[in-house]
Structure formats: C-alpha cells, structure tokens
Amino acid sequence: MVDRRIVPNLRWIAQRFPIYVSDGYSGPLPNGEHAGCHGCHVRHSDHYNGLAVDISPLNWSDKCDANWRGITRLALWAEPQQNEPASPFRWVGYDGDAGHGCGHHLHLSWEHAATPQFEIAEWVEVFPVGAQTGRKPRSPRKDRPKTPPAPPPGPSGGISTVHSGGVSPRGD
User: What pLDDT sits at residue 136?
Assistant: First the structure.
C-alpha cells in the first residue's frame, strides 16, 4: 500500500529496473488492523504516510551481488551524490546510510507537504511519466516548499516528480 499519487512513478521505475517493493505504508488501517512492518521504521518515517517504499531486487540475495546491479543503478539515479537526492525524492537510503544498501534494501521517499503521521499529505511531488518518460528527475531545488525534516538515519531508517507544486490528494 502506498499513496496513490506515487503509483505512476513506481510503475515507471518497475518498467526500467528489476524491483520488488517490500514495504510501503506502515501503520493502522481503518478496520483496526496494521499494514506494513510493525515497529521497523524510525520515528517520523515517510512510510507512516504511504510516501516511502523499501525496494530490493526481484531475485533476492542478502549479498551485494549481480542481483543488486539494477537496484544500485536506481539508487544512483535517485541520488547521484550522497545526501543530495534528485527531485522529487526527499530521502534516499542506500550505501552509506545505516541499515540500508546493497544486500539490504533501497529506501525511496517522495517530497511532500508537512503532515502528521498516518495522514494523507496535502501535496506530493512526483516526476512526469507517460509521453515524457525520457525525462529524469531534476537536481535538488533550493526553493522547495516547506517540508517536514527528513527522518534520522537508523538501523531500519525511514525514507521518504518533477511536477512542481505536487498533486493534491484528490488528484487535481
């Protein structure tokens, strides 16, 4: 489960990289049940708003081997330089981030409005797909709207296109 506004981005990514999404939204459901992993993300993780995913290769391996090549390429595409994710990504957790990396998982989260956990963000920044599929996300912008602070790195760190201004929860 993820915020529906990032689904087209995930489909675009899946068409180009051999990914398996192991976690998206983590939190309570309206029926009282719980989705996602329980207690495995840091406080204020974007997983709690459905705006982060944990990704591993289709052919799982806990060793940094050939199965991870596509995931490593995806990580470098999303964050060409450590701690400077390309827009629309808010935080990318991979090699160099505790509890993430080749042989463990890639964490991607999308830029979004400041939102309490377990609530839908007013806007989410996504990259264009469809006719513009050749475009890559832009470099980080200096003029981004106010967003919540990135979650602190940790053993199970939380993570959080290029459509400036984002998309509302209603899709307009």
Answer: 57
Instruction: Please tell me the distance from the alpha carbon of residue 33 to that of residue 76, in angstroms, as a whole number.
Output: 36
Counted residue by residue, the chain has a size of 172
With vertex at residue 39, the alpha carbon angle to CA 89 and CA 158, rounded to the nearest 5 degrees, is: 15
Q: The tokens of 133 are what?
A: 């599929």
Q: Are 85 and 75 a contacting pair, CB within 8 Å?
A: no
pLDDT digits (tens, 9 = 90+) for 95-128: 999 999 999 999 999 999 999 988 999 999 999 9
The first and second tokens of residue 88, run together, are 């629309």
Going by C-beta distance under 8 Å and a sequence separation of 6 or more, which residues neighbour residue 150? 90, 91, 160
For the chain, give the percent of residues with pLDDT over 90: 59
How many other CB atoms are there within 10 angstroms of residue 72's CB atom?
Answer: 17
Neighbours of 123 (CB within 10 A): 18
Q: What is the DSSP letter of 146?
A: P
In this predicted structure, what is the pLDDT of residue 37? Answer: 74
Q: Which pair of structure tokens corresponds to residue 3?
A: 């915020």
d(CA 163, CA 65) in angstroms, rounded, equals 35
* Alpha-carbon torsion (141, 86, 127, 90), positive or negative: negative
Query: Is the separation of the CB atoms in 131 and 144 below 8 Å?
Result: no
